[in-house]
Amino acid sequence: MLVSNGEFLEFVNAGGYNHPEWWTEEGKKWIASIKPQMPLFWRKQGDSYRLRTLFQEISMPWDWPAEVNNLEARAFCKWRTEKTGKYTRLPTEDEYYALRSILPKDQPEWEYQEVGNINLEYWMSPNPVNLFKTGDFYDIVGNVWQHTITPIYPFGEF
Fold first, then answer.
1. Confidence band (pLDDT; 50, 70, 90) for 141?
2. pTM
3. From CA 74, how far away is CA 80, in angstroms rounded?
4. Residue-wise pLDDT tens digits, 53-102
5. Cα maximum dimension of the chain
6. Which of 6, 7, 8 is nearest to 69 (CA)?
7. Neighbours of 134 (CB within 10 A)
């Protein structure tokens, strides 16, 4: 299941952006230059949080997936490993493709809303992380970007 905003809030409340031991070297440089204290689309208002969506700012939907960058996702995994004692990491790209292969069909054979919030067929914003289930997994495709630990190498002259 994708990490929800509610789960990511635990990382934020644990001072996740202020613990260099949870960040990669690249992540530490990003923290030093941007100085974030929460995901980019979050805004704190008093004791509550709001989420900036495409067209408006809304009350924080705690069951929506946390929209973070790869550096934040990896730091969250390190924090969660320390918190739970269970090794947590992002999947490799090959693992993601193996997981994706359990879907019964592929595009364009999917029926509207059959497998996930994809191609703007459901919402233009994310949806709760427990809405689209395939086997033991949720949100295999769609909803938000799927991060992996596999580096992305651009095409030549890109």
1. confident
2. 0.89
3. 10
4. 888 999 999 999 999 999 999 999 999 999 999 999 999 999 988 988 88
5. 48
6. 8
7. 17
Query: What gap in Å lies between CA 34 and CA 158, rounded to an integer?
Result: 26
Residue 119 has pLDDT above 80, yes or no: no
Q: How many CA within 13 A on the CB side of residue 95? A: 9
Q: In the structure encoding, which two tokens stand for residue 148, read together?
A: 């992996």
Q: Strand 57-59's sheet: what is its strand order? A: 42-45, 48-52, 57-59
Using left for φ > 0, alpha for ψ between -120 and 50, and beta otherwise, residue 114 falls in alpha
- The candidate with the shortest Cα–Cα distance to 105, out of 69, 83, 134, 136, is 134
Residue count of the chain, please give it.
Answer: 158
- Indicate the domain borders of the chain: 5-138
